[in-house]
Automatic annotation (TrEMBL):
It comes from the Eukaryota. Residues 14-194 form the 3-hydroxyacyl-CoA dehydrogenase NAD binding domain. SUPFAM superfamilies: 6-phosphogluconate dehydrogenase C-terminal domain-like (SSF48179), NAD(P)-binding Rossmann-fold domains (SSF51735). GO terms for biological process: fatty acid metabolic process. InterPro entries: 3-OHacyl-CoA_DH_CS, 3-OHacyl-CoA_DH_NAD-bd, 3HC_DH_C, 6-PGluconate_DH-like_C_sf, 6PGD_dom2, NAD(P)-bd_dom_sf. Keywords: Oxidoreductase. GO terms for molecular function: L-gulonate 3-dehydrogenase activity; NAD+ binding. It comes from Patiria miniata (Bat star). Residues 198-253 form the 3-hydroxyacyl-CoA dehydrogenase C-terminal domain. This is Lambda-crystallin. Belongs to the 3-hydroxyacyl-CoA dehydrogenase family. Pfam families: 3HCDH (PF00725), 3HCDH_N (PF02737).
Length: 326
């Protein structure tokens, strides 16, 4: 996380955030943690008020638990973040603008057209889009070479992966500046080299959700036990090893694994059913069961529970990296 500029409470450059919901707030905290001035815009005044209260609260909690990111205090980071109900004020003078409005193609396209009117000549204009291909979102823009997508993982403050997706028009320097900024603020960028609907992370997540659904729908396993397959099984390894590394270590290397299990994998693959419809009695049963186990009025509490565990996991990963002998 070496930076060319020292982080001071005076700030070291301005970043604009468009949309102050779940993701906009997280980006604001991440950029402020590295000493950047952040100006957040939203069309809803109540969202901006809620965002500042939420951020102030989160920063104080993080400081209290010793898990605040960066070298500045919660107070100093809070002072770097301001809000506005005027998009021009958020975008003008920013070297990076991060769009975080809802996942709606027409809305995003409209927001980008407005962003490019106010943006500095050299600004990087970046979307947090989760699924839609950048070429669909950026085609109509005059300054489309400056636009790029950077899809974070929820919750971004605790899960550092960001998928970078250039469009066919994105300048190479915009790709490298985005990557450098994300690395500097402590995220982990990966590049989606070729546009595809849903990028990589959500495509893999969807493959898992579909198979989990089919196993429950076919009466093979209960939803609670499906969750345990991850929390006590696959997830334990996946926190440290990717899917290729896992199979490499499960035999004498990946070639030996595929020699032993390749035809089995193909046979199992041929039994995967079609995509589930998410309707009907199975839908009712799964939703009912899930809502009973994880009550809807406790979501905020459960997110806190999850984040505390993600912090502990991140600390473990960092400690193990710092001490490679382990
Ligand atoms: N929630 C996730 O898990 C997640 C993860 C990664 C990426 N994303 C992506 O991030 C983006 C934002 O998602 P979110 O979960 O933060 O949504 P959200 O609904 O929490 O927040 C969206 C915010 O945008 C504001 N907004 C709406 N129209 C606007 C406009 N024209 N100008 C400015 N602000 C406007 C809303 O008032 C709201 O505050 C989406 O593209 C989403 O797919 C979400
Ligand atoms: C950045 O934020 C700090 C702290 O609020 C402030 O003193 C400084 O003037 C800001 N810099 C810019 C360029 O907005």
């Amino acid at each position: 996380m070496a930076s060319s500029q020292p982080a001071t409470s005076q700030g070291k450059g301005k970043i604009g955030i468009i949309g102050s919901g779940l993701i906009g707030r997280s980006w604001a905290m991440i950029f402020a943690s590295a000493g950047y001035n952040v100006t957040m815009f939203d069309i809803k005044e109540s969202q901006l008020t809620g965002a500042m209260a939420d951020i102030t609260n989160q920063l104080a909690e993080l400081q209290k638990s010793g898990t605040l990111r960066g070298a500045l205090t919660a107070e100093q980071q809070r002072a770097l973040i301001s809000v506005t109900s005027d998009m021009k004020e958020a975008v003008t003078g920013a070297f990076h603008v991060q769009e975080c409005v809802p996942e709606n193609e027409e809305l995003k396209k409209k927001v980008f057209s407005e962003m490019e009117q106010y943006a500095d000549d050299a600004a990087v204009l970046c979307s947090s889009v989760s699924y839609i291909e950048p070429s669909k979102l950026f085609a109509h823009l005059k300054r489309r070479s400056q636009f790029i997508a950077a899809h974070p993982t929820n919750p971004p403050y605790y899960c550092p992966l960001v998928e970078i997706i250039p469009s066919p028009w994105t300048e190479q320097s915009v790709v490298s500046r985005t990557r450098t900024l994300l690395e500097e603020v402590g995220q982990v960028p990966v590049t989606v080299k070729k546009e595809i609907y849903g990028f990589a992370l959500n495509r893999m997540q969807i493959a898992i959700v579909n198979e989990a659904w089919r196993l429950v729908a076919d009466g093979v396993m209960s939803p609670e036990d499906v969750d345990k397959v991850f929390t006590a099984g696959l997830g334990m390894r996946y926190a440290f090893c990717g899917p290729f590394e896992v199979i490499h270590l499960n035999a004498e290397g990946i070639a030996s694994y595929l020699e032993r299990y390749g035809s089995t994998i193909q046979r199992v693959s041929s039994t995967f059913g079609p995509p589930p419809a998410f309707t009907g009695p199975v839908y009712d049963a799964i939703v009912q069961d899930n809502d009973a186990h994880y009550p809807l009025d406790k979501l905020q509490e459960m997110r806190g529970w999850r984040d505390a565990r993600l912090v502990a996991l991140a600390k473990l990963k960092k400690d193990m990296e710092d001490n490679k002998a382990l």
